[in-house]
Amino acid sequence: MRTSLKESAEAFAARKALDSINGKDPDKAIEKVLGWVSRFDEKEGTVALQLGYIRKYLSDKDSPWYRLVRSLWTDIDPDVRRTVFDNFIVNATILGGRRKKDAMKEYGCNIPWTILIDPTSSCNLRCTGCWAAEYGRSLNLSYETIDRIIREANELGTHMFLFSGGEPLVRKTDIIRLCESHPDSQFLAFTNGTLIDEAFAAEMLRVRNLIPAISVEGFGRATDARRGEGTFKAVEKAMGILREYRLPFGVSCCYTHQNAGVIGSEEYFDWMIDKGTKFAWFFTYVPVGVGAPTGLMATADDRKLMYEKIREYRKTKPIFTLDFWNDGEYVKGCIAGGRYYFHINANGDAEPCAFIHYSNMNIKDHTLIEVLQSPLFSEYSRHQPFSENHLRPCPLLDNPGALSGMVHSSGASSTDLAAKEDVDELQEKCRERAEEWKPVADGIWRSTHQGKSL
């Protein structure tokens, strides 16, 4: 898909506007950002809803949101900030949003906002409860395959890419090379942080379009218990290096029944902010994989705690938070299956979600469009949302039978790289927690949506 004259003109104007806001005064810059994005959005309405929230939260200069955005000027290298804004706002949201709409009409399938890619199954740690720990070190997507995925995605309007694993920074040379080759795309790496050193920080500063999200399970004892002795100190060292180089970074938190109280504590949020973290991404433990322990699964009380605490801290703490499950209400349910994202594992299997290891197609043998049109992805598109209550978005954790039904009807096969897992057995492992969460989630939904029945 070639760039139209209209797109070229809009991109040029947007980038000129970015130049004008990249000065030293953050207060003037914030208002300019909102002003020019609003102008670009007047006709298409691609980011109208998001802008409404942004304007509301940034209207108060004493608010944590204002302090957070202001810190992007005081804490982050200006060239990195400009590149991230360019890729995120112009390429991924404004221009990419329009391309995705056109592509969805042309191909009759979901087009994702981002793609999660595992460059490797290899990892330098063996974390308890992580399926990648069982995968070994033998699987890698070639640089050429990942490069092709990115190029095909760009044609469809997708300019955001996430790396996971394994430990993606095992392939740090190739990741930097991909950032260099695709300067108009934004990359984020979910990493344990132990491989971040000054040399790599210097490379990140040079390419400007890579942001790490460092996995942490709480403070020292909890993190080291799951990830290995000394991991927490290595994480804090990595954060210090990133801050010294004025690079943006976030934290990725997997909350379990064992650590939800710590992850949801004010002390933990203050620690993240004190270390320079700009965003935190919250996931809950899923017992994926044959023999995966179920005792780590968050209970209904744990999940309710995280729901309440994250929303409480959004009003008081200058850090951007995303809750992969409990924020389903903001995106109207499940985002997987290409609706907003999907996952490609280190073997090339195209899976609807990082937690759903079933597929019909391998990216090595198919184009990106063929993957998005695959039977399992089509089943996702047909059934989403899986519940009228978007606080129960997941076909595995929240809606017993939804995932197994789609896998059976699409003829998808298990892609688990350690041992093939029967989808009915996986679904059954999650049934008890799903049934516990339903009345709690329904009660929250009714109280926050004017008594809407379910």
List keywords for this structure.
alpha/beta; 454 residues; 17 helices
Number of DSSP strand runs: 11
Order of helices and strands: HHHHHEHEHEHEHHEHHEHEEEEHHHEH
Largest sheet: 9 strands, mixed
Number of helices: 17
How large, in whole angstroms, is the Cα Rg?
Answer: 21 Å
Low-confidence region ranges? none
Q: What's the quaternary structure here?
A: single chain
Q: Helix share of residues?
A: 40-55%
What is the average per-residue confidence, as pLDDT, rounded to a whole number?
Answer: 89
Taken as a percent bin, the fraction of beta residues is: 5-15%
Structural class: alpha/beta
In whole angstroms, the N-to-C terminal distance is 43 Å
Order of strands across the main sheet: 7-6-5-4-3-2-1-8-9
What does this protein look like?
This protein has 454 residues and is α/β, with parallel strands linked by helices. 48% of the residues lie in helices and 10% in strands. The protein has 17 helices and eleven strands. The strands form two sheets. It has a nine-stranded mixed beta sheet with strand order 7-6-5-4-3-2-1-8-9. The protein has a two-stranded antiparallel ribbon with strand order 10-11. The protein starts with a helix and ends in a 6-residue tail after the last helix. The mean pLDDT is 89.
